[in-house]
UniProtKB/TrEMBL annotation:
One record GO biological process: transcription by RNA polymerase I
Protein's recorded name: TAF1A polymerase
GO CC term (a single one): RNA polymerase I transcription regulator complex
Source superkingdom: Eukaryota
Gene name as annotated: Taf1a
PANTHER family linked to this entry: TATA BOX-BINDING PROTEIN ASSOCIATED FACTOR RNA POLYMERASE I SUBUNIT A, TATA BOX-BINDING PROTEIN-ASSOCIATED FACTOR RNA POLYMERASE I SUBUNIT A
Length: 412
């Protein structure tokens, strides 16, 4: 009966999809391709009037299989994507974008550019307006490829030095790419979102032609506009731009302060700490100590000698002057329960001594001040250093012993 046919078809379709999923999870791409073929054929034989709408599923599954199948070729992939473009008008531009990404990954830049140009000229009634966001992405990626062509021409001209600019045709072609890239890149970064690559390329174009005010405005908008999602890279790009322009330390510190609030473990925290330590303002030096302590809370910094050197230097200065010991105490209070095992175990002392004696020196100095002269890490490293007759380790031991009365004040 008609009802039985519908029930059986639904069961067989679900079973086939289950087999496809299983084959893909097991990376059995040939088996998955065979089941997908059966799935498509069964859909073609279905005479029920219920809308099935399987085009997106076939597109997603088929793309994944073709990307991994050992016998698939670019020709087959291109043919498949062209078929998918005609299957669903609502997904036309998304399919185009995925096709372009695949072409780019395989080094077929000209083909990718051609596909973007064709997609940009696509029109289909109301769907054109509905897919406005996808169309902007199409234009943005075309601008990105125009930027690549511009950069290539720029490098050719720069390699030939000042005399290279005598070739007006090459220079004019470069400016043509600049205009096309700038228009499309400028449009996409107006939309709230994460557009790191597009922003970097657009700023590079502006900087090359000396439009530093526009570049600064773009980066400030990208970093501080509340409509955009919080993005650490936005503040990194702004900081790097300000540094290239030789801006004041106040501006650099302001950019890095927000980066610190978002990602306290970012590699630029070393630069941030260095600038803060050199400041004459007590508030900024206090922040510098907070920044370096916070960075060393993360496992990725455990063996970063620059970070330990920064902390050791600032802690040593405070101990010698005996001013602001409360700064150290405040930072240490929230860490004294877990930092000893995390940073200052006897096991780590042995390993650090064997692998990097300079690192073990900086850590031992910090450990001796924070945990006292009986700290396992400090005792092991200072003993090994004195045993090896290394002067700096003898000086280290004397320094910690001399300032041992500071430890009770820090530990509370």
């Amino acid at each position: 009966s008609s009802h039985e046919h519908k029930v059986n078809f639904k069961k067989s379709k679900e079973a086939c999809l289950s087999y496809i999923q299983d084959a893909m999870l097991r990376k059995q791409w040939k088996r998955a391709a065979e089941f997908l073929t059966f799935y498509v054929e069964s859909l073609e034989k279905d005479y029920s009037r219920e809308p099935i709408g399987p085009s997106e599923m076939i597109w997603r599954i088929g793309t994944e299989i073709l990307c991994h199948h050992s016998h698939s070729s670019m020709k087959e992939f291109n043919c498949f994507m062209e078929q998918m473009k005609t299957l669903g008008v609502k997904r036309y531009l998304k399919v185009c974008l995925e096709h372009v990404f695949h072409l780019l990954c395989n080094g077929q830049i000209d083909e990718a550019y051609q596909n973007l140009s064709l997609a940009e000229s696509w029109r289909f009634g109301e769907q054109t307006a509905i897919q406005d966001r996808e169309m902007k992405l199409i234009q943005a990626y075309r601008g990105l490829l125009d930027y690549c062509s511009w950069a290539k021409q720029k490098n050719i001209l720069l390699e030939h030095g000042p005399d290279g600019f005598a070739d007006l045709s090459v220079e004019q072609e470069m400016h043509s790419y600049f205009r096309k890239a700038a228009v499309n890149l400028k449009e996409i970064i107006k939309i709230p979102g994460v557009w790191d690559l597009f922003v970097k390329c657009y700023v590079d174009l502006l900087e090359f032609y000396g439009d530093h005010n526009e570049a600064c405005q773009v980066l400030n908008e990208y970093a501080y506009n509340s409509k955009f999602p919080a993005n650490p890279n936005a503040h990194v790009y702004l900081y790097q731009f300000l540094k290239r322009q030789g801006e004041s330390k106040k501006s650099l510190i302001s950019a890095l302060k927000i980066l610190h609030d978002i990602v306290p473990s970012h590699e630029l925290m070393i630069d941030f700490n260095t600038m803060l330590q050199k400041s004459k303002k007590r508030k900024k030096r206090r922040l510098g100590l907070e920044v370096i302590f916070a960075a060393l809370d993360y496992a990725g910094w455990k063996e970063n000698i620059r970070a330990w050197s920064c902390l050791a230097r600032q802690v040593k200065q405070i101990v010698i002057s005996e001013k602001h010991l409360d700064w150290i105490k405040q930072e240490w209070n929230s860490r004294k329960d877990w930092w000893p095992a995390f940073h200052f175990s006897r096991y780590l002392a042995k390993r650090n001594w064997q692998e990097n004696k300079s690192l073990s020196y900086e850590k031992a100095l910090v450990a001796g001040i924070l945990l006292g002269k009986d700290c396992k890490y400090f005792k092991y490293v200072s003993h090994q250093g004195c045993k090896a007759r290394v002067k700096r380790f003898r000086m280290l031991k004397k320094f910690v012993n001399r300032h041992s009365p500071v430890y009770p004040r820090i530990s509370g």
